[in-house]
Design brief:
It contains 21 helices and 18 strands. The protein is α/β, with parallel strands linked by helices. The strands form four sheets. The chain has a six-stranded mixed β-sheet, with helices on both faces. It has a six-stranded mixed β-sheet with strand order 14-15-16-12-17-18, sandwiched between helices. It has a three-stranded antiparallel β-sheet with strand order 2-1-4, with no helix packed on it.
Length: about 675
């Protein structure tokens, strides 16, 4: 049967957690072989002499810098494009399914019709069955023939499987019969993804599949793929997604494709080690070439050395030259200009009431954000994270309450759907020029060039830009008019790895206040210093980074903690731990010392260690007490208490860092005397 998995029921009780059993699948050997494949566009060579195999059960991540040719290689694997040289050889009746990064316009089909359109034959048969059901066709003989043919394709389970997968991708039951043309691009992408999962091809080829998934759907999808019986090739900017799924990595770099074993983190370690080895080999070879060339140059004019000179030159010619590793030439490099300093209070929300019809999102909600905070919003889907960000940005009206900005605050809002920030009818250059700052075209072109908009790219209409290009253009607009309160909703969507790293680097140096939503755990770990959990209209503060939040909530996984609701445990504050004392060990060593000066120095250092240990223990207890107080809702009902506790905690954190650094230095000096 090729109609999808036998899921047993149309709706799973816990769709985000339950992985359907593989009842129908029967493993069979298959592979796809790529041999000596090359591809160029004019004088530009994307890659050459590429060879690799895809076997059953492979989980392969395809990575590389912007413009390296990742999507082109996918097209060649699919047979949708023709290579300059080389070939693709599928063995047996291998089926391939592809989810592109951008989906073409859909027709009149409904969500369910697209999700069950696993083959053209199945689509035709389904439409005929619908005609029978509607009474437009009454020939019973034809009906039984059509029904039998549809059942032979696995049609009796097809609709149930499709509904279960659509449900897990957050479609509501009432959406199943909605025409796709009435839905947003993100939901159309999900429907195409559902079709692929129902079809369950031998090789699943996914190009940025997580871009249009919310956190609940992403958790389910990641778990589903973990048990997928076929092979998977994927392009993704989500490091956790790649680490969880990939068993090998194909990297396109310098016109070559190289395969690394392991997940994405393993690949980074291996590539760094390889680059060091390659650089060492390159330097050694260049040194050898220089020595041979110097000999030839020195004795070129001597007849007695002519044969030796020729021998040295031929030795240079026969060498297989080692290419030095180079940095990616096409990568975003930028930093935010430092904005004007604000007052201590940046934005304050008081008694906010926000509802959409009968759906009450917030009732009497209060929040105060101070200068320099780096806050990530987490919580279940639909809890109101994006709504809170929009209220802070003054991008959506609220029914009652007040929103007050602090002194000199300039708000920048980086919307989840970039088109909300851009005018589709404008060109890239016109959109970049639409800022409050007076800028010349030369300056605009320089900035756009650093974001990979070069040459005639600046005259492209915004409407034809890819998702990644829209994201980069939105970043350009923020860069040209830097805010001191930056609100970002899923800022890494559509950005590749290099662009995400560049954005992280720029935000690490950013001196303003940052509040963001993201499902990218790597991005969150790099930037968040404060976690605000939004659940059922309530805000719970965690004064610490994402690891602190994980520890406090006893979450089972980093991804789960992003969407956890009221059921997430809250761990009790743990007693402060005392740094290990080195006194007894050092005293034993002191007994063996013979020099009084050394003895006195070690005693002095020992005193520093002991005093710092006591101070660290005291500060850790104070930190835990204040953090617990800030996590209590009633703290924010006491006028000024939250602000005072926050400032006190900031001082405690600084003092703790200083005390720890002094303790570590003292221990290091003691250990160096052993």
């Amino acid at each position: 049967m090729r109609g999808g998995r036998a899921l047993g029921q149309a709706r799973w009780p816990e769709p985000a957690l339950v992985i359907p059993p593989l009842l129908w699948y029967r493993p069979r050997p298959f592979m796809l072989t790529i041999t000596n494949m090359s591809k160029s566009f004019g004088a530009r060579v994307l890659f050459e002499d590429v060879s690799f195999q895809v076997n059953r059960g492979d989980r392969i991540a395809l990575v590389g810098p912007n413009g390296a040719g990742k999507s082109t290689l996918f097209s060649l694997i699919l047979g949708a494009d023709t290579p300059d040289t080389g070939e693709r050889v599928p063995e047996g009746q291998v089926t391939l399914g592809h989810l592109p990064q951008e989906i073409a316009t859909v027709g009149d089909e409904t969500v369910l019709e697209l999700a069950t359109a696993i083959t053209p034959e199945a689509t035709v048969l389904q439409r005929r069955i619908k005609r029978f059901d509607a009474g437009h066709d009454t020939d019973s003989h034809d009906f039984y023939d059509v029904q039998a043919e549809f059942d032979a394709l696995g049609g009796h389970q097809l609709e149930a499987n499709a509904k279960a997968i659509l449900d897990s991708l957050a479609f509501r039951e009432q959406d199943f019969e909605r025409p796709l043309k009435d839905m947003s691009g993100g939901w159309i992408m999900r429907a195409h993804l559902a079709r692929l999962l129902v079809q369950e091809p031998d090789i699943l080829i996914l190009d940025e599949p997580t871009n249009h998934l919310d956190l609940e759907a992403l958790r389910w999808f990641q778990g589903y793929l973990a048990s997928y019986p076929g092979a998977i090739l994927l392009i993704s900017h989500d490091r956790e997604f790649l680490n969880a799924l990939s068993g090998s990595v194909l990297e396109i770099r310098q016109r070559r494709v190289q395969r690394y074993r392991g997940n994405y983190d393993d690949f980074l370690v291996q590539r760094e080690a390889q680059a060091e080895q390659l650089m060492a080999a390159y330097k050694n070879q260049q040194k050898e070439i220089q020595q041979l060339q110097e000999f030839a140059d020195r004795f070129r004019a001597k007849n007695t050395k002519a044969s030796q000179v020729q021998s040295k030159l031929k030795q240079i010619e026969r060498m297989q030259k080692v290419e030095a590793p180079v940095r990616d030439s096409r990568a975003i490099r930028f930093r935010f200009p430092q904005p004007q300093r604000t007052g201590r209070m940046v934005v304050r929300l008081k008694d906010i009431h926000q509802a959409y019809g009968k759906n009450v999102v917030y009732q009497g909600m209060n929040l105060e954000v101070e200068r320099g905070q780096r806050m990530v919003l987490v919580g279940p889907n639909g809890a109101g994270k994006s709504t809170l960000l929009k209220i802070l940005a003054d991008a959506v009206p609220f029914q009652s309450g007040t929103r007050d900005l602090g002194l000199h605050v300039n708000v920048g809002y980086y919307a989840q759907y970039r088109i909300e920030m851009l005018r589709p009818e404008r060109t890239v250059l016109e959109e970049a020029a639409d800022t409050r700052q007076a800028t010349s075209e030369e300056f605009l072109r320089t900035v756009l060039g650093s974001f990979l908009f070069t040459g005639d790219d600046v005259f492209k209409p915004v409407s034809v830009l890819s998702g990644g290009e829209k994201s980069r253009l939105a970043l350009v607009k923020l860069l040209l008019d830097p805010p001191n309160l930056l609100l970002m909703d899923e800022p890494t969507t559509h950005l590749d790895m290099q662009s995400i790293d560049a954005l992280i680097g720029a935000l690490e140096d950013y001196a303003g206040t940052l509040i963001f939503i993201s499902h990218d755990v790597y991005f969150i770990r790099k930037l968040a210093k404060w976690v605000l959990r939004v659940d059922a209209g309530k805000l719970q503060h965690y004064h610490g980074d994402y690891q602190y939040y994980l520890d406090k909530t006893a979450a089972q996984s980093e991804r789960e903690a992003l969407t956890a609701g009221a059921g997430l445990k809250t761990a009790q504050p743990t007693p402060a731990t005392t740094r290990p004392s080195v006194r007894s060990k050092e005293q034993k060593r002191l007994d063996a010392e013979t020099r009084n000066a050394r003895f006195r120095e070690r005693r002095k250092l020992q005193g520093v260690v002991a005093s710092r240990e006591k101070e660290i223990a005291r500060l850790e207890i104070k930190q835990a007490t204040l953090a617990a107080e800030l996590e209590q809702p009633d703290t924010y009902e006491k006028p000024g208490r939250a602000v005072a506790a926050n400032r006190e905690l900031a001082h405690v954190v600084d003092d703790l860092a200083q005390a720890t650094a002094e303790w570590e230095e003292a221990v290091k000096r003691v250990e160096s005397m052993t």
